[in-house]
Specification:
404 residues; alpha/beta; 17% strand; two-stranded antiparallel ribbon
Length: 404
């Protein structure tokens, strides 16, 4: 909006020192106050239907102006005391600064953005003081961020799509206060790949212990929120999950994460043997077919069972959920034989959590992770590069279940 030179000259006619422009009683502050009050008065004029001090139209109702309410509004720079106009009947609802609103000019958004990056209440308080010279109480910061809880609840119960071709499931451990002590809690995340090939976090759940009953509740919740089918579920060996998902979605193909299988195998291996064991394990999952892979497993057992018998036993116990990826072409194999898609999400969340220490409650956990995920998700990439070709594969292999 262009401001005429005449107006600028009028504003600056008494200017002598910088404080006259930017100080507590300077032009900037006074101009902001006057402009806001002008708009608020214009809103009341629009509501009543006639100008201040003008003759009330005969058709006008009994309502009229009724003085002002003094109110302090926090902006990103300072606090401004405004005179908010009132009407006699109390029907007037200002739009610029709504009733009960105490902050303005994107102030809440700045606090929420800093919180989403993992800054503590004290960090945010110090940053606002340093950058803007504003003293903000910890209770105000908590009030702003606590408002997110309603958004979290709405997000956690939102309807989901009917079909997710791929779903990843993993967990992240957080420290949380409970009953006066600090406990480790697991936050479980379900990440779906929708029909457009894009990642979508379906939900978060907190539990002390995982197990078949817990996972049955999670999968049942997903179904109740609208999910009718999942083609492939990729998990890291979470106890009870394959049984739980196949109870609710019996046709879903469960794929164990190969990377987690390797990590679990190496728990039993001495440092000097690790390189050789990893090389021989690669022959198993790097095979071209499930049949060739099984031959490589037998070869591995012959080589290492005398020293590490639990490794081949572990792979055989999970074999049916290890080999499904062999039925797919290379680009889909890469997307489903590890849970890297959700591991990268967890890595970003850990970066946020490491600055926070123990969080005060489950709500604080949900609030922080929800805001962090909103920020992180803006940079998510597609887990399968050639998604159209992947859809063609799904359409053939799941012909009776693929939407036309």
């Amino acid at each position: 909006m262009a401001i005429s030179e005449k107006v600028l000259d009028e504003l600056l006619k008494d200017y002598k020192v910088p404080e006259d422009l930017t100080g507590e009683k300077g032009i900037f502050r006074e101009l902001k106050k006057r402009l806001l009050e002008r708009v608020l008065n214009a809103e009341l004029t629009e509501h009543l239907g006639y100008e201040k001090n003008a003759q009330k139209p005969p058709t006008s109702e009994e309502n009229a102006r009724n003085g002002y309410t003094r109110k302090k509004i926090q902006t990103k720079d300072d606090k401004i005391e405004l005179d908010i106009p009132r009407d006699r009947t109390g029907e007037f609802e200002p739009q610029l600064i709504k009733k009960h609103q105490r902050r303005f000019d994107g102030f809440d958004d700045k606090i929420i953005s800093m919180y989403a990056y993992g800054m503590t209440t004290r960090d945010i308080q110090g940053h606002l003081k340093e950058m803007y010279g504003i003293d903000v109480s910890p209770s105000l910061i908590s009030e702003v961020t606590d408002a997110i809880i309603e958004d979290v609840k709405a997000w956690q119960t939102r309807p989901l799509e009917e079909l997710y071709p791929i779903m990843y499931l993993d967990c992240i451990v957080v420290k949380c206060h409970e009953d006066g002590v600090i406990r480790n809690k697991s936050v479980f995340l379900a990440l779906g790949v929708n029909m457009e090939g894009r990642k979508e976090l379906l939900g978060m759940w907190i539990a002390h212990n995982e197990g078949a009953k817990f996972w049955l509740n999670v999968v049942t919740e997903l179904k109740n929120r609208g999910v009718k089918d999942i083609f492939i579920a990729c998990v890291d060996g979470l106890k009870g999950f394959p049984e739980a998902i196949q109870t609710v979605f019996p046709e879903t193909q469960v794929q164990l994460c190969i990377v987690h299988m390797i990590r679990a195998s190496l728990k039993y291996v001495s440092f000097k043997d690790r390189k050789a064991v990893v090389s021989d394990l690669k022959k198993i999952y790097g095979s071209n077919t499930a049949e060739e892979s099984e031959m490589m497993l037998e070869s591995f057992a012959a080589q290492w069972d005398n020293k590490y018998p639990t490794i081949s036993k572990q792979w055989r116990q999970n074999w049916e959920n290890i080999i499904p990826f062999f039925a797919w072409p290379e680009d889909i194999r890469k997307a489903i034989y590890t849970t890297n898609a959700i591991e990268s999400v967890n890595h970003s969340l850990r970066k946020v959590l490491k600055t926070r220490g123990a969080l005060p409650s489950d709500d604080a956990v949900f609030k922080l992770l929800f805001l962090a995920l909103k920020r992180i998700s803006k940079k998510w990439t597609m887990p399968v590069h050639n998604w159209k070709r992947a859809l063609s594969q799904f359409a053939i292999r799941f012909a009776g279940r693929f939407p036309l």
